[in-house]
């Protein structure tokens, strides 16, 4: 059914204005962003299909431009660019939360932030969150790409970046494109190598978070730091 054929109080835009955004389902909110469907498929059906494809809103927030381009109806630039802009706003909102307060006051926000940035990368990416003395976020940087080993992640570069940001602590992070978040022995060895190198300049390693689509593991919570 097209939106115009729905009763006025059931149309997402009118429903939002009358009852507030919280009254809308995920499908209805996404339909408002998409505005129109495709030939033979209304916008509500399209929104529902998109959410099913990505496993709900959490999965959609992790989606990249190329993944969205493959969705029927999002191959053009207009809708896709608007959706990408909204997803980026969500990422930045989480980033602002981490900048405004002590990071480990909300460990789930840290995991969500890292998932948004790294979880759906097709290759491994090693990153670091640089924190001040109050454990508030100074910056996040992606430092290395490719198969991550002790030889491809250079402790010297991590130390230099920490000094450049005047960081008091760091949270290390990388993704596993395979989908599992279990740390390998190489991950554990790399963490200890970086912890020792950063200790020489009085920078603490608070955690090493491994992410994959829909999952995140804290090595600190597992007692591996």
From TrEMBL:
It comes from the Bacteria. InterPro entries: MPN (IPR037518), RadC_JAB (IPR025657), RuvA_2-like (IPR010994), UPF0758 (IPR001405), UPF0758_CS (IPR020891), UPF0758_N (IPR046778). PROSITE patterns: MPN, UPF0758. Residues 103-225 form the MPN domain. Gene3D superfamilies: Cytidine Deaminase, domain 2. Keywords: Hydrolase, Metal-binding, Metalloprotease, Protease, Zinc. It holds the Pfam family RadC. Belongs to the UPF0758 family. This is DNA repair protein RadC.
């Amino acid at each position: 059914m097209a939106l115009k054929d729905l009763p006025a109080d059931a149309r997402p835009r009118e429903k939002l204005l009358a009852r507030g955004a919280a009254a809308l389902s995920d499908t209805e909110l996404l339909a408002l962003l998409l505005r129109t469907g495709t030939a033979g498929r209304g916008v509500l059906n399209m929104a529902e299909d998109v959410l099913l494809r990505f496993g709900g809103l959490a999965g959609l927030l992790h989606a990249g431009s190329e993944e969205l381009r493959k969705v029927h109806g999002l191959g053009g630039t207009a809708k896709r660019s608007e959706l990408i802009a909204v997803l980026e706003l969500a990422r930045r909102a989480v980033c602002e939360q981490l900048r405004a307060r002590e990071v480990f006051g909300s460990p789930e926000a840290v995991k969500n932030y890292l998932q948004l940035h790294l979880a759906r990368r097709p290759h491994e990416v090693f990153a670091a969150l640089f924190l001040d003395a109050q454990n508030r976020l100074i910056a996040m940087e992606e430092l290395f790409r490719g198969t991550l080993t002790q030889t491809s992640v250079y402790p010297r570069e991590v130390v230099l970046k920490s000094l450049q940001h005047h960081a008091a602590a760091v949270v290390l992070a990388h993704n596993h494109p395979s989908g599992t978040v279990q740390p390998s022995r190489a991950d554990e060895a790399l963490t200890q190598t970086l912890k020792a190198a950063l200790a020489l300049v009085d920078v603490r390693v608070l955690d090493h978070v491994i992410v994959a689509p829909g999952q995140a593991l804290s090595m600190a919570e597992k007692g591996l730091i």
